[in-house]
Amino acid sequence: MSKCIRFFDTLSLNDLELVGGKNASLGEMLRTLKQKSIRVPNGFAITTHAYKQFLLANQLDQQIENCLQAYHESLISLESCGKQIRLLFLNSGFPEDLENEIKQAYLQLSQEYNSMGIDVAVRSSATAEDLPDASFAGQQESYLNVTGFGSVLDATRKCYASLFTNRAIAYREKQGYAHQDVYLSVGIQKMVRSDKGASGVLFTIDTETGFPDVIVITGSWGLGECVVQGMVTPDEFLVFKPLLKNPHLAPIISMRLGNKNQKMIYAQDRVGSTSIVKTSSKEQTSWCLDQSTIIQLANWAQTIETHYQRPMDIEWALDGETQEMFIVQARPETVQSQKTAHTLKSYRLNQTEQPILEGLAVGDAIANGKICLIRSVKDIEQFIPGSILVTEMTDPDWVPVMSKAAGIITNQGGRTCHAAIVSRELGVPALVGTHDATQKLKHQQSITLSCAEGEIGYVYNGILNFETEDLSFSDIPITQTQLMLNLANPDMAFRWWRLPTAGIGLARMEFIINNVIQIHPMALIHFNTLQNKDVKKTIAKMTASYSDKSEYFVEQLTFGIAKIAASQFPQPCIVRMSDFKSNEYANLIGGQDFESDEENPMLGFRGASRYYHPAYQAAFELECQAIRRVREKVGLKNVKIMIPFCRTLAEAHKVQAIMAEQGLIRGQEDLEIYVMSELPSNVFLADEFAQLFDGFSIGSNDLTQLVLGVDRDSNQLIHLFDERNPAVKRAITLIIASAKKHNIKVGICGQGPSDYPDFAQYLVSQGIDSLSLNPDSFIKVAHKIAEIEATNSQLL
Question: Could you give the strand order of the β-sheet that contains 119-126, starting from the edge strand earlier in sequence?
Answer without folding.
Answer: 5-7, 43-46, 184-190, 119-126, 142-147
